[in-house]
Write a structure and sequence with these properties.
With 151 residues, the protein is mainly alpha-helical. The chain has one domain. The chain has 6 helices and no strands. Helix 5 packs antiparallel against helix 6. The protein starts with 16 loop residues before the first helix and ends in a 14-residue tail after the last helix.
Length: 151
Amino acid sequence: MSCCSSSSHPLGRFAPWFPRIALGTLLVSIGVNHYRHLQGFVEIAKVVLSPVPLLGNVMGFFAYFVPAAMIVGGALFAVKQLPWLSKLCILGSLSGIIVWASLAILVGDTATTGSMMPAIQNAAVLIILYYVVRRMSCCGSCVPPPPPSNP
């Protein structure tokens, strides 16, 4: 039985939407939280990469777009609209955080590199959750049919 087929339970056909809405809402709330503390988010991006001033400025500029990408991607993912833009926003923002934190560990101040590990772990967990929820909620429509077997 497919996850989209109707079952005896009245919520059976809506079940694939619950994890999708939950992850989309989580990403939107993380993006809103980053915007609420935007000055601190930008300062962390600049200060951690201060040994390379150009890289610090680029990452400080990038810090303005990460929350917007999380909000747009999470909202589009939750309502299952524009899947290519949703994927671009979600994976772009989360992989951007991983690259930013990895660069901070490689070239950043050694005193603040320990504070970067939670950002890497959170982004990695969210990427894994994105793929799991996407796989659960597509109900076979995202997976191409297997090739026909030759008897």
